Amino acid sequence: MSSTTQFKPLHDRVIIRPARAEEKTAGGIIIPDTAKEKPQRGTVVAAGPGTKDEPVTVKEGDMVLYGKYAGTELKVGGEDLLIVRESDILAIV
Question: pTM of the prediction?
């Protein structure tokens, strides 16, 4: 686990550090903060052990894609993190 996280997720929960939102378009136009979309990609910071029947398949350091409105946002030590169920993760990149 990262030094910024002092907790361990339970069951099938996964803690994700979201990637930064794009600052510019491909054409070079700067996107203002109000128009930026929520990122749907991030890095796994910690993962719970899973349930009795299904262990968690993602591990710390994996880059994952997750649903746009998945999980619960929280701030730990000034860092934005996201807690999601493993079933909300769409793919490992």
Answer: 0.78
**Which DSSP string do the residues of 12-68 spell out, in sequence order?**
TEEEEEEPPPPSB-TTSPBPPGGGPPPP-EEEEEEE--B-SS-B----TT-EEEE-T
In the chain the domains, ranked by start, together with CATH numbers, are 13-20+38-92 (2.30.33.40)
Dump pLDDT digits (tens) for 24-42: 667 777 767 666 666 689 9
Mean pLDDT of 48-72: 89
Phi/psi of residue 58, nearest 5 degrees: -85, 155
Q: Evaluate the CA torsion angle 67, 69, 33, 73 in order and state its sign.
A: negative
